[in-house]
Every structure is written in structure tokens, then in C-alpha cells.
Amino acid sequence: MHMKKGAGGSLAIVVAPDGGWGWVVVFAAFYCNVVVDGIIYSFSMLMSDMVNTFHEPESKITIVGSLLNGFYLIAGPFVSALLNSVDFRSVTIIGSVISCIAFVSAAYVESLYQLMFCYGFIGGIGFSMIYVSAVLIPGFYFDKWRALATGIAVCGSGIGTFVLAPLNALLVENYGWRVTIMVQAGLALSCAVAGILFRPLKPTIVEVPTINPVVMEPKIPEDEPLLMKNGTAERKMSLDSKHNTAKIGAPTAEEIYNHLSGRQTPEPRPISISCHSLNTHNQYLKDRLSPDLPEKKLSAVSLRRPSVSAHLMDRDDRFFGGSLSRLPQYSSQVSSLNYAMSVTRIPAWNEAEEGDDEEPCSKNNSLRRNMKKYYKSAMHTLTTMLDFSILSSPSFFVLTCSGFLTLLGFFVPFLYLTEKAISMGMDRKLAVWLVSTIGLTNTFGRVICGWISSYESVDAIVLNNVSLTFGGLYTVLLPFLPYSMVSYYLYASLFGFSMGEHYACFASLRSTMIVELTGLELLTNAFGVLLMFQGVAAAVGSPLLGNQYGLFKDWTGTYDVSFYLSGIILTASAVICYPLRKIKKWEDDRKLKQPDSV
Length: 598
What we know:
It is built from 24 helices and seven strands. A hairpin with a 2-residue loop joins β5 (226-229) and β6 (232-235). It is 62% helix and 4% strand. 55% of the residues are buried.
């Protein structure tokens, strides 16, 4: 490849400040989780009044809440794609407005199907925009304290359930479900205020020194082969011996810097960048990614502008919510800047029009390039997250099946525990606090699990399996317990605590589990596929397992079968993960026997 004199320039890299305004962002994210999960988990408080309004069986009413549960997960990959073109602040505000409009519209519907569409489908998409932003943004503000920051943010889920379940019950009792949804619309809109606090991070500009003219052969190191396919570089690399082969479409900022300068320690400087300096590495990136393609087929490649909104999600660790000390990439770096460069990728878009490099920095040209860049950036994220070929990995396939089963049975206690207790003779005013108890003990479970998991010797997979097993067993045993207020509150406490531990794993250690199985470079892909499967399970689980006037209710006259099935499914989701490490070892051994496979 030919490097021209003057190839030096600057790299714009976002580095986590690890403090300061980041703590404001964490508590804003905490509030968003209070509202979103609080409304989702307390939907059961609205069901009985909706049954009286629409004169439909509870099984159909359940679909409304299940759609809300499902689509706030299913829409996750699409929201992530949007985040790669728009910043956290804008996405959160837009999601808040969408949710507010959806809930206000739902308060005036006359048909159950209209309610499903407005409250479940549209409301779920709006909530997804709030939820994904609130869960991810702590990781962009924190490296050293990322696990703590993420843990504080997701604790809003349990607190929201504790507060909003009795509040919704009180509102429904006095004003009906329509007014209650109007109040929820106001709460959803208040997340826009929290979103305003999601201040975009400004990048650090790293100066790359100018190098002398030199001609370099496009030689590829033997331990890092590049395969050209449709203009995309596919590189075989691993984080350590445990990790899989990954396909990566762009070099990291660290690789670009080291190639251009020969240095190992980049030097930051105050932010100062021009339209021209953002394009100074175009020739190198073209040669680096596609050295054999004709010049007219190559696009202008621009580094990210000094704004987190340009390529917000072009980091391998964007979905990693655990302690970075578990990552070899983090422990091997001397500073946060070095780490950020090692996981930040500079994408190359291969379809830009010829001559983009030479276009002047006019407003029209800049707008057109930005729109094209945003579109391609979003599509890049979406196609990466929804690449289902990752399911060919046996270990990840098992983890995905476990995640699907977990969400299939998870929401049944939230939706039916109150009604089951009332059917057994408990006063409604006492029964509504059962869901609140789940929320409160869920928070304690998250905190304790987060503390335990801070020790590197703790196995994330074992911790996840144990907590999920106990949650499933408690649910199976509930129908066998003699009825008393104490027994039902005991179940709510134990289920909330164990599932809180699981969801602490689910929120922070889930990413650790995925990295152990697939490697950090495939975390984004794995996360997107997992969200889709779990979203589908959440959407169909409760109507399938909790049909009051349907098959189970007709056969037994009680909710017992629904709790049996929910508990069995939750337990099964844990059991299939017990041999996960053996499956991973077998998978790695099989790959070692095929060294030439890509």
C-alpha cells in the first residue's frame, strides 16, 4: 500500500470520564428504569377493570401487557441502530413522546384490538427507546466503575415495581384504568426530562504524527489474516485462547494509529478538528480494508466527528455491562484512552460516490454526506445485531434457548399472583402488595448479586443458573403451599430475590457470559439475537401460560397449572445451562481440529 507524506492527522475517540456528570446520567437512567419497568411489571393491576370494560376474557387482556413486554425487547436492535445515528438524549426524548402519545391514545380506545396496538405495540416501541438508552448510557460514561453504574441504573426496575404497583391499583380503584393510563402517559413523558440529562460525550482528539514518504507492501501478518469479501475485511482474531473466530468489518482506532505513527502510547490534545482533518486517513483506510479493489469502487472513509452522535455504537464493548476487569483488553491497557482505542472501530462505507473526498465542506455537501453516513451507520449496526449465523455456535445456541425459556415463564407471577391470591381469599388491598414485594426483594437480589459478582473468582454462569433454578422451584411449589397471607408473601419475597439475582446477572453478567462464550468482538451480534428471542418469548409467554378462561382454567378451575408450567420452564432454562462450559470446551476442541476453517 502507498502512504503519502502528510498522512498524519487526528483520531476522534470517546473516552469514559469515570465520574463527574456521569453520576447524574446514572440517576437519570435509574429514573427511566423506574418508570418503564414499573409500568410494565404492574400491568396486572389494570386487568380486572379492563375485563369489565371490554367484556373479554382475561386471556385476551393479557395480550396487551405481553405486547408491551415483548416489543420493548424486540425493538432493541432497531433502537440500537438508531442510536448509532442519533445520540442517547434524542432517542430517549423521542421514545418518551412516542410512549406518551401511545398511552393517551390508548385511554380513549373503544376496542381491545385498538388497545393492543396503541398500548402494547406503539407503547412498547417507545419504551424500548427509553429502556435501551437508559441501560447502555452508563457504560459510555464509565469504564472503571461501569459495573457499579450499570447496577445502580437497573435497580430502578425493582423500585419502580415496588412503587407503581400499589399506585396503579389505587388509581384503578378510584378512577378506572383509563385515568391510570393517562397518569402513566405523564410518567412516560417525564422520562424526556431525564433524557435531557443524557449529555453527549465529546471525544478526545488524538494527534497522529506525520510520517515520511514510504512505500509499504500490503503484507498481511500470518497471525492476523484478512480476507476480502464484497469489499469488507474479515479478520480472524481472538481475545485469548478461549475465544472464537470473529468477522470484523473495520480496523480499530488503535490499529490505525499504530500503523500510521509506529507509537504504542497515543497522546491526547484539546479538541480541535476540521472537516479536512477528518478525512486525512482516507487513503490509508481504503488500502487497509480493500487493497485489491479498483479506486473507483472505494469510498471516502471519514473518522468520526467530535460528537458522540456520529458513530456512537462503533465499539466492541457497547453492550458490556459488567466489570471491565474481566476483559483482557482492559487489563492489558495502560490508560482509558488506550482501552477506548482498542475497542473503537473506524468503519469504511464502500458505496459512497466517487469524488466525495474532493467535495468542498459546503453545508449541502456536508448534510448529504451526514445523511448517507447516518443511514449506513444504522444499517451496519442493524445487520450486525441481527446476524443469526451466530446461532451455529452450540454454546451460544444453548444460551439463547435458555434466555427464550426464561422470558417465556418470567412474567406469569407478575400478572397472575395478585389474582391467584384474591381467588384464594386474600383481600385485594393486601394482594396488590405482592407484586410490590417482588419488586422490593428484586432490588435487594440485584444489589447482593452485583456485590458477589464483583469478585473475579465468581463464575457468572453458575451464579445465573443457581438463582434461576431457585426462582423456578419456588414457582412450581407455590400451588402446593397451604393458603395463608404469610405463605404468599414468602413466595413473593423468595421469587423476587432469586429472580433479582438472576436479573442482576441478566443485566450485568449476561454480557460477561456472552463474552466468555463468543468473545468481545461478537458481543453486539449475540446481544441483538438474544434480545429478539427474549422479546418474542415475553410477548407470547403470559397469554400462553396464564389463560384464565381458556384451556387451563376450564380444566382445573384455578391458576395452578399456569404456575406449574411457569416454574418448570424457568427451572428448565437453568438446567440446560449447567453443562454450558462443557459444551464450550467441546466446541473449542472441535475448532482446534479445524485450524484452516474461517
